Amino acid sequence: MKIEDLASEVGDWLSGDGPDSDIVFSTRIRLARNIEGYPFVTKAAPEQVGEIEARLRDAIQALDLAPDMTYWNLLESSELDRYFLVEQHLISKEHAQSELCRGIAFTRSESLSMMVNEEDHLRMQVMQPGFQPETCWAKLDAADTALAQRLPWAWSERFGYLTACPTNVGTGMRVSVMLHLPALVWSRDIVKVFNAVGKIGMAVRGLYGEGTQATGDFYQISNQASLGKAEDRIVHTATSVVPQIVSYERKARDALLGKKRVELEDRVWRAVGILRSARSMSSEESMHCLSLARLGVHLGVLNDLNLRTVNELFVLSQPAHLQKLESREIAEPAERDIVRAAFIREAVGGA
Amino acid sequence: MKIEDLASEVGDWLSGDGPDSDIVFSTRIRLARNIEGYPFVTKAAPEQVGEIEARLRDAIQALDLAPDMTYWNLLESSELDRYFLVEQHLISKEHAQSELCRGIAFTRSESLSMMVNEEDHLRMQVMQPGFQPETCWAKLDAADTALAQRLPWAWSERFGYLTACPTNVGTGMRVSVMLHLPALVWSRDIVKVFNAVGKIGMAVRGLYGEGTQATGDFYQISNQASLGKAEDRIVHTATSVVPQIVSYERKARDALLGKKRVELEDRVWRAVGILRSARSMSSEESMHCLSLARLGVHLGVLNDLNLRTVNELFVLSQPAHLQKLESREIAEPAERDIVRAAFIREAVGGA
């Protein structure tokens, strides 16, 4: 598979299907693993890093459960391609910027993906549209079990799986649920939600993970601790708050439909008008307008926009994607803003 | 003719035709006249006011040169109807608010119109699209001559025509040119234009005359003095600055097309996107967006919007027009904003 194919074929997690997908954009679980007998990535000698990469690559490519898995060594990819993978949520920014021998593997649907030699020797994740923690865990558990038959994971009786950062020790698990909460942002009740989420030991992040701003009214909540509990318990605890947030957001949306209908329709339609008309648009503005469009589709205020189109645009309108779609490097943000506006106009039937 | 007919049939001065009509919206000349032997309106007794109204009404209705003239006594009209006439530029706000016996006459094309018992016994005006001072003056002169055969105007050898306000003494003439100057506003050179215009004794006003704000980038320039010169000299002096302003605006537009093309297209198209999408829109915002749309049509940036539609919307989207078009009183501005947005969307092919 070539990276160009990824630009036209967006991952299934953007389909807009799945339980509660009007509010839960996607569910993601990842596991951190390290091969026994090697130092962690930052402490390993270059030849060890290369050896780790080779062993993991072989094990991943031999996986029966994912015959359509593609593996790339990132030393062979351009900077643009790596940022493209960041925008696809397939690799982290750190993994893109690293200079080590490292890799990325993913299935065609992008449901299962693996980073080799990021913070840990292996980070593997399963991402699904909507609220599907059990499905994610079942798929990921199967991949983990299959790999464990080929590789000895660093593990201690006392702590569980050993990881580069102590916060991941134990299960090496992080469960992340990406929520679209435009109505709670509008009503400003989002602050209460964050406070509540923080109190039960969950972290809140933006669309592109740790340290990123919440754009497009997307919030990622995830567990902070991965130690001392069985994996399925962590999945349960980390996601038990989600149905409550979903119900708050639904109530806030109902309130908009009731008391603020005109303002809601006005904001949604203006956003669509901008998406269909602008000749230059920053990434931030496009996220803002797409968020309102997504809300409008789900509330039945908009009926001539396809949900999958809107969902995909959140990813496709990002800088690296635009450059891949245009098949050229566009260094100037101002020029990207023009390309972005044209691409979005085309996608949403603009003038 | 009924007032309802005026709502669907907009005056020819909005046609968008006429010389330099990309920049000169309309040219208007008015004359102030008073009947000899009566006090000015504010000093006249009620029965005199009624007598003046009757004499003028008879003379106006007998005019051969305007057989399609409609005459209304404003005591018989509703407040809404009177504001409707203000928005059509047929009467002044003061004339709408007065409680005296007074009238308004206008031809079907609204080219020629007359206010009876406004500040003076008679105010008659001719309004034409584009830059047409000579045509305006020729038509107005003909009407004045015809009326003078039936009515003795208050006149003094020393001062000329006598008027209620000394600023109108002499010819009783005011020449007003309505200019659309979005590019000069954009480049901020508009201030220089105003200073230059002020120095040669001209006044600058907004779209709805004295004391009104300049909305939609429209500026009305008019002479301040009407004394000491023959009428055609005043027309000439008052309009001699117009070609220069027109050329400044053209240069500013060329600069936008050259150096700021993307920003220009972006602003114009966003404005159209808002006009086609918004569910609620204030009068001020609609004027702003219509101004950009008008600029876009004239610069060839927009090609799927009709110029006459845009020009008419400046008037049709005003509060009294919206209420007449809806055939009901809408007291709440918030409700008018909804009606306005729907009306504009419909007119510009919105979603």
Structure in words:
2 copies of one chain form a homodimer. The model of chain A has no long low-confidence stretch (mean pLDDT 91). In chain A, helix 9 packs across helix 10. In chain A, strand 6 and strand 7 (160-161) form a beta hairpin. Chain A has 14 helices and 10 strands. The two termini of chain A are 35 Å apart. Chain A has 2 domains: 3-253, Glutamine synthetase/guanido kinase, catalytic domain (Creatine Kinase, Chain A, domain 2, 2-Layer Sandwich); 261-347, no CATH class. With 351 residues, chain A is α+β, with helices and mostly antiparallel strands.
Per CATH, the class of the largest domain in chain A reads: Alpha Beta
Order of helical and strand elements of chain A: HEHEHHEEEHEEEHHEEHHHHHHH
Tally the structural domains of chain A: 2
Q: What oligomeric assembly is this protein in? A: homodimer
* CATH-derived architecture of the largest domain in chain A: 2-Layer Sandwich
Proportion of residues in extended strands of chain A: 15-25%
Number of strands of chain A: 10
Taking pLDDT < 50 over at least 5 consecutive residues as the criterion, the unreliable ranges of chain A are none
- Relevant CATH superfamily of the largest domain in chain A: Glutamine synthetase/guanido kinase, catalytic domain
Query: What count of helical segments of chain A does DSSP give?
Result: 14
Largest sheet of chain A: 8 strands, antiparallel
Globally, the shape of chain A reads globular
The average pLDDT of chain A is: 91
N-to-C terminal Cα separation of chain A, in Å? 35 Å
Structural class of chain A: alpha+beta
Helix content of chain A: 40-55%
**Largest contact between chains:** A-B, 20 and 20 residues
Radius of gyration of chain A: 21 Å
